[in-house]
Amino acid sequence: MNRPSVRIILVEPAGELNVGAVARVMKNFASRELILVQPRCDWLGERARRMAVHAPEILTQAQVVPDLTTALTGCHRAVATLGRNPPGEPLKQVLPWLLADTEPVALVFGPEERGLTWAELQLTQRQVTLPTSPEYHSLNLAQAVGICLYEIYQYQQECSPTNPPPTLSVPLDVLEDYLRDLEDLLLTVGYLYPHTRERRMAKIRHLLYRATPTPAELALLRGMIRQIRWAMGREP
Predict the structure, then answer these.
(1) 77-107 burial, b for 16+ CB within 10 Å, e for fewer?
(2) pLDDT tens digit string along 9-68?
(3) Which CATH fold would you assign to the domain 172-232?
């Protein structure tokens, strides 16, 4: 059975021990691709390496990138983790969708002290919340990563190889390129206004994410933009 590689993305991680523990649990569940967005700690330091135990190669091979958009390059599906307010979907409910593709997918985790921003969440298609006791609901970063990877591992072990082949989809960075072109066009024609464009584009982005266009369908949408721009440039 073809399985997508699961990319673990940590946004601005602040603790060496946390990053080391994440590397260790990644190796427990055969996940190897770690991406750090503007890390605020020494992920190659002695404490991180000690915490990683037998997974130092995950730390040394980790990619460091300047923003979440870059981290998601090449991913076809992405899920972000949320706290309890507002809650996201249950992880088990999202897994069949996340793992239906054979192309890379991503799990995105925010900074330990604040979580992901609204703008960062817009770059992911779905959000999940891990259920915990109301008496103490806050999870350590490495614990959250471990629970998610455990659920993914279990799902992949149980998943039947007779499942139908996945629909060909488009990487998230390619979708974002299209959305930037569309936003520019909609600003030009006056459909969007600078002070409201973020919220309106968020709705358009979610619509496009739900549609999961194929490469041919996205090419069709891009062709519309090109034709509209061409018509706008013609003499009346």
Answers:
(1) bbbbbbbeeeebeebeebbeebbbbbbbbbb
(2) 999 999 999 999 999 999 999 999 999 999 999 999 999 999 999 999 999 999 999 999
(3) Helicase, Ruva Protein; domain 3 (1.10.8)
